[in-house]
Amino acid sequence: MSFRKIELSELSFNPFEKIGKQWMLLTGGTMDSCNTMTASWGQLGVLWNKNVLTCYIRPNRYTYDFVENGELFTASFLGEEYRKALAYCGSHSGRDGDKMAETGLTPADLQGAVGIEQAELVFVCRKLYSYDMEESGFLTDDGIPAQFFGTDPYHRAYIAEIVGVYVK
Prior knowledge:
alpha+beta, Pnp Oxidase, Chain A, 5 helices, 10 strands, globular
């Protein structure tokens, strides 16, 4: 089943469910060389008069270099039947093997970015701005740094314009 491009205004969904509970796959790179990772942190909204997605990637993740070095990346949303694939892509590194081959997922070329063919919904995103999170930026003392970072590096945030929306 192939994708069809739609306008973002045609979508009606709950981002708290889609991102926080169903998760998404962030994919960077090209059809020749790409990597995907599971993410459950992100935002959708409007910034600088553009429809944007903000996502967070730690610099030690293999996907980081693919997103960092490209102009485009995708956020793919899959159905519940792909929960095991999502869990695998969130707990294994592409440095150690081919996540697509291991999970049966298939890359799809969407506007020169790599999406996931099995997805129900894919956002093609063009990076606009990035910043590195730091412990000094926390404004409350409720234990978030200790709970979510420990010895892991802080994330880089990517604010990206949604330049394409694809559905099945």
